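Changelog excerpt

This revision adds worked examples to the README so contributors can see how folded entries look when concatenated. The first example is reproduced verbatim below.
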Amino acid sequence: VAPIPLVAIGGLNPDRLDGVFEAGANSAAVVTDITLSFDSEARTREWIEKTDRWR
């Protein structure tokens, strides 16, 4: 049996990612932080840059 991946979701923002992955999450799911952002394209780029070391 393969391990079950742990996905963090809910209330996430780029500043919280270190703690999310340190706590054992394998990935993070985000919707609201991007869609409610004034500049969703820039916020998406920020997420991509911030998660680069875990990909």
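The second example, added in the same revision:
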Amino acid sequence: MTPLPRRPSPYAVLTVAVAVVLVLWFVYSTAEVLLLLFLALLLSLYLGAITDFLCRRWRWPRPLGLLAAVLFSLAAAAGLAAVVIPPVLAQFEGLLRTLPALMDRWEAQLLGLVRRYPLLGDVLPQPTPGHGVFEGLLGRLGTWLGGLFPYVFSGLHLVIDLVSVLVMSIYLAARPRLYREGLVALIPPLHRELARDILAELGATLRSWIVGLLLSMLFLGVCTWLGLVLLRVPYALAFGVFTGVAVVVPFFGTIVSTALPAIFVLGTGDLVRGLLVLLLGVVVHLIEANVIHPLVMERQVRVPPVLSILSVLVMAKLLGAIGLLVALPITASVIVLLRRIYVQRLLEGRGFRRRRRPEPLVVPVPAGLLTQPLPDDGASVPARLEAAR
């Protein structure tokens, strides 16, 4: 007779429930700190990839390779800033100078819509002598911005966070095995090999996301800039840089970066060129989504579109603007954990034991022993091995 399974003790259930609540409370209370740690982890994976390449290629010691990776990254960032920022600032300055004329034109169009559709008059501020619709909107905006001045001092806090992320990423990239094995040591010995496998897959997933993101930013920024130059759109470099940066935010960044230059051109009254700019944005993003993304990220980062949108909305609600930057890598990491632990080990019944050896088992055998015919006495191969010692 098969014995009935034992029911868990109420005290055990209560203990687990309290532990889960405490863990959730801890994560919620320290969400900003954990977010900084995750950003440091992403940066350490980037630095670690460059360090590993340098150490494999030229057999450098790891500290020297890490120093070269940090110096290379800082030099690349400084060089890119020196090349891109001055013309971008100049183009943004020119864009700001042309805004008053564009705003007057848009205001005339809005007033025409108000005369045609009187209900819009309840939504837009009514122009007064010497003050138009946009002046009223800017006046309200100035009132709203007046309450933001106390938050200017948070810039110091931002600098401290950036320095903390940089320092943590350098330490993580310098000795990744130390922190990985320290985390694995918290796992029961029976499951440590599985934990190492999962951590390795998480690292590969996040590293693929970083590489794909950098390539997508470069591709979209350069192609948008070249396309807008060919279409003779002013401030093409500024729009190209914005398109490359906006790809960090899935889905919504694509919409904004595609629509913004098209709206700007349409505001000048050039309908044909505005539609061509919109078509350019759609084509460039389609090429990125169907060529760059599958080649670099599809094997490791498999996040369905709906989950990407939901992750952006949820992270923006929980963590604000910074949550937009980490929405996709966090979602990809959660998918890996659910697939490897919940789906494969629990639902599919594979359990948590590692059934495959990481390396083939090698048994030393004396030369020519296994090629000899078996003796008539029926001695087994293990017996012959023992006799050959």
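Reviewer comment on example two: The mean pLDDT is 80. The chain has 13 helices and no strands.
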